[in-house]
Amino acid sequence: MAAILKRDQVLSPRVVEDMIANGHTIVIFEDLVLKLDSWLDRHPGGGLAIQHMVGRDATAEMKAYHKPKDLKTMKAFRIGRKPPGLWKNHTPPIRGGVFRKLHDIPPSPTPMPLVVVEDVDVDDDEDSSCLSDSASDGSDRSVPTSLSSIDSRVEASPAAPKIAPGYEVFWRSSDDPTVTTKVFQGDAAAYTAWAEQRDADLVSLEYPAVDPIVQQDIAKKYSILAQRVHDEGFYTCHYSEYAKEATRYTLLFTLSMTALYHEWYMTSACFLGLFWHQLMFSAHDAGHRAITGNFVVDTLIGMWVADFCCGLSLGWWKRSHNVHHLITNHPEHDPDIQNIPLFATSPSFFRGVFSSYYDFSFVWDAAADFLVPFQKYTYYPVMGIARFNLYLLSWLHLLSSKSSSLGNSSAWWIRPVEITMMSCYWYIFGYLLLWCTLPTWPIRIGFVLVSHIITMPLHVQITLSHWAMSTSDLGETESFAQRQLRTTMDVDCPAWLDWIHGGLQFQAVHHLFPRVPRHNLRRLQALVKEFCAETGIPYTLLGFVDGNAKVLGRLAEVGAQVGHLVKCQKYMAETGESGLH
After folding, report:
1. Residues 6+ apart with CB under 8 A from 183
2. Where are the domains of the chain?
3. Which of 17, 118, 163, 443 is the most exposed place for a label (fewest CB within 10 A)?
4. Cβ atoms of 566 and 573 closer than 8 Å
5. Where is this region: Disordered (predicted)?
6. What's the fold here for domain 2-95?
7. Strands 541-543 and 490-492
8. Containing H/E element for 240?
9. For residue 188, what pLDDT band results from cuts at 50, 70 and 90?
């Protein structure tokens, strides 16, 4: 009885903060305070998924990713209850959140620096496109920066920000408001800070405010929608649809082997690439436990499809993909957009970022300076060979300590089975097909390139729904539902083309309800549209061509910003002047 009473005790936010400061993994679920220390390394979805929820109310995320019966087991980890009312989310330690122990003396509050801007007159010379260090007359004509209001006075251009030549940015001392100090003179760090804030302000104008009351209302409406999705049977998998899928897969593989038998090598490569392309849609479903709902069965299905048939690690994909779903489009935490020096979809990458997923710093260097300005031209060629990078990431995962060998849990078998299946893939494809069957090296190289380039639409489809969307961090008060809709785009297409897109055209719907089988997503889309209309959250839906244009536009915009910075810094290095008079 005493243990039960203890587990029902109300824990104040200050006590929870102290526990996190002492290294404990504390997550809020409904009104329960969960201590997940012992579960962190055994979680089938990976420990990083839990770490991104530390100190937060993770109710929406946990319900989206787990079946109701699985959530019941979470009560075994409860150590108390949260106080009534809204829970104020903390920034998790993995994202830089700072937590104080109870015995620590709270630091004296320090006023935040105020960023202000000034008008200056500049020459129209093209070498004058740099950011200045001080006003020509030295006067203090500062105004508070609300970058959305700046946009009303400064012409915005998707190609190159026009604010650079005509404004100066100062830091105002919190101790003496009459003193201003220069923070940058054309350098990337200061420009990056401005660009990040500008993007966030523009997004804030378009989406509901991140005020806790507003977001709590959105969360409640999302919870009602989630219950409706459950009650109306959207999680029911129609296996007849997978029978159709299996027929298509078998046909494509048979055509590839028939062409190979008749020595039509490039034709065989085309059909093999189409086989891989279509097959991975089912691996995606299995990875989300959307086929049978059983962890073991869906994992085996997914490994058969991904590891044995395609040579890609399901375990790597699940670890990466789970984090991507939880912290979508965050430059420092979403591995799906961390592609420096080839691509940058956010100005945040200009300052370099430390990836919490890779435990690695992506440094902005000369290679990024050279490659990113051309990224709109290299996008499709790189997507054509992206599969080779997935091979590398898969093996690096399986051979590292991050692989899914979950201690003494029931999932200990995942890693050895994956290694076995991927080894079988390379024996069949690499040795029996490429080496023993194909006659010459030119044919072997051509077969590999054609079969892999054919899968390019899959990689375009994966990036299409996110790379053109917001990468801003609007804070811990933003609801799960709003973040997913703000960072994800759906692709419009007729129903008879759904098999080509494989359900990935409903990414926004999928991000809200990742366990729903893809064959139910078109019906569910109608409910999501109603939810967006009710909450005021924009629902981004574009055709495939328009979606591609939006991605290329974003790549061109960020690339132009890099070109602007490089030009500015080069001018200053050569002249020692800002270029402003």
Report:
1. 169, 170, 171, 190
2. 2-95, 114-185, 221-535
3. 443
4. no
5. 124-155
6. Flavocytochrome B2; Chain A, domain 1 (3.10.120)
7. parallel
8. helix 239-261
9. low
